[in-house]
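SEQUENCE-TO-STRUCTURE ENTRY
===========================

Backbone structure tokens: a row of integers, each naming the local backbone shape at its residue.

Task: work out the structure tokens from the sequence, keeping to the layout shown below.
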Amino acid sequence: MTTLAIDTSCEKSTLAVFNEGELIVSCEHHSQKLQTGFFQLIEKTLDENNIQPEQVEKVIIGLGPGSFTGVRIGVSFAKTFCQLTGANLIPVRSYYLGIDDFQPDIYYLALTPSTRFECYAALYHLDSNRTFENIHDISDGKPDRICGWMKDIPDGAKLVIYGEGVGVLDGLALWDGIEISILGKNNSLPQADRALRFLDKFPDMCIVADPLVLKPLYVRPSPAEQKRGQSKPRL
């Protein structure tokens, strides 16, 4: 089985191709030139590895949040590709592709840059049964809001902070009673080559989507939420 994994949510779009579960090739492309080069890179990568588009049986796509334009272009490409070839479309939240090895009983705070807010933020927990629990779903990651989330983490718990937007917390005091690790930006960007390993470890997250109805994941406040200063994920 040939699998194509794509993420276009951050400053570097990434591409990975797997065959029978083994990584064949992984490459990246600067997202500022996404429309002019990334799809040519996909075509070239498949051609150099003697893979015809119809041989791809599964496409894993980073659903966001992240670059508004980048995510929309990547998701649109994946949907069109699957419609034309009949490949299964598997969406994954992009920040899940920023961690190499998830550990149980740890809280994770993912921070992704946003042109509309200071950053997107999501706080979630991986329990001892290796089930993900959203503590605070994707929202406007204002520093004071993130600080308020810390009350929902038990004393003595471990928290991993990661993502391209970790700089939003610069200058803030660390929270008492929580063991905090901060991953460097270069070590925690979404990487397409992590996609298949993630789904192998968490098969419940491997859900085939209908390419006709799948939409990018981003934060868009409704009029009522704007009045309240709130925002929430919209699919």
